[in-house]
Every structure is written in C-alpha cells, then in structure tokens.
Amino acid sequence: MRVVLVEGDITAQQVDVIVNAANSSLLGGGGVDGAIHRRGGPAILAECRALRASRYGRGLPTGQAVATTAGDLPARWVVHTVGPVWSATEDRSALLRDCYAKSLRIADELGARTMAFPLVSAGVYGWPVEDAVGHALTVLRAATPANVTEARLVLFGPDTYRVAQRVHAG
Fold it and tell me: Where are its TM segments located (predicted)?
C-alpha cells in the first residue's frame, strides 16, 4: 500500500473512504468531525443516529471505528474513529494506533481501494503533531491490506504538513 502525505481539506479528497476523527457521540462536533458532517450532509448524521440507536447506545469507544455512507462527500463511505485525548501522564498511543488500524481494516473489508485519513487526535484532543504523525505512519507503513492500495494522510495547514514531511523522511 502506498502512503501519501497531502496538505489540504479532507472533505475534498476524492477517495473511496474518508476517515472521520469523530467524537464518541457520532453526532458531529468541531474540527474534522464538524467539517465532514457539514459537507457530507444529513445522510451521514442519519446513519450515525441509527448506529447510536442500535449498536452504540453509549457512543463509539475510543480506538474503535465504524462505517457509514459518505453522503455528499466525494467518497463512497466515511469511517468514523474516536481518537484518544492526549495525556502527559498516561500512554494512550496504542489507542491512537488502533484508530488507524481499525479504520483501515473496515475500509479493506468494504472493498475500498483508496482512503484519506486526518491526523487523528492532533486537533482539539491535543496530541502533539510530530508524535501523532509518527504513530499514523507506523501503522500505515506496516499495513498489508488486501484491497486498499493508497492511504493519504491529509494534513491541515502548511505547518502541520511540513512537520509530517520531516517525520515521513526521517
């Protein structure tokens, strides 16, 4: 699988799967989650509400992932994953890596060929960007999916993109 760094807006990526850095409610929020729900339209929220009413009554657990329609996004599906909030006193990196691994597994099971990931937990959840990029690349570089041939790590803003390029090259 090819891993590509892209600076830009994840909601504009033309791929089979867009990964959403969701909050556990699955009902939208700020940052990437809010942008995906706004651009994707009401179909995404409707499926998320159905998931809450059935399998995830208490919300989607941290490190887990689930797929819905992509609504009006230029993709077939959205895979929602809940990243951990960064902690200086507790190592939550395994949960962060699970977000990438489980999202990739779901996309692969759906038959997706291409997917776009945000930098999970690096926004309002406070994960240091350099470390977040390192965890994302560790999982994506080691993956051997049956169907997915390209994983894009979509980075918002030139500063985040430069950090990711440095980590990717190092």
Answer: none
The 10s digit of each residue's pLDDT in 47-86 is: 999 999 999 999 999 999 999 999 999 999 999 999 999 9
CA of 1: how far to CAs of 12, 40, 46, 145, in Å? Answer: 21, 27, 32, 7
Q: How many CB atoms lie within 10 A of CB 91?
A: 9
Active-site residue flag, 33: yes
- Starting at the edge strand that comes first in sequence, how are the strands of the sheet with 17-22 ordered? 2-7, 150-155, 114-117, 17-22, 77-82, 65-69
Show the DSSP H helices in 15-170 as ranges: 31-40, 42-53, 93-110, 129-142, 158-169
Res. 45: pLDDT tops 90: yes
Q: Where are the domains of the chain?
A: 2-169
Reduce the DSSP state of residue 61 to 3 states and report it.
coil
136-155: average pLDDT: 97
- 74 exposure class (CB count in 10 Å sphere: 0-12, 13-18, 19+): middle
Catalytic residue among 16, 33, 98, 108: 33
Into which CATH architecture does domain 2-169 fall?
3-Layer(aba) Sandwich (3.40)
- Is residue 75 a contact partner of residue 20, using CB atoms and an 8 Å limit? no
Mean pLDDT of 21-43: 95
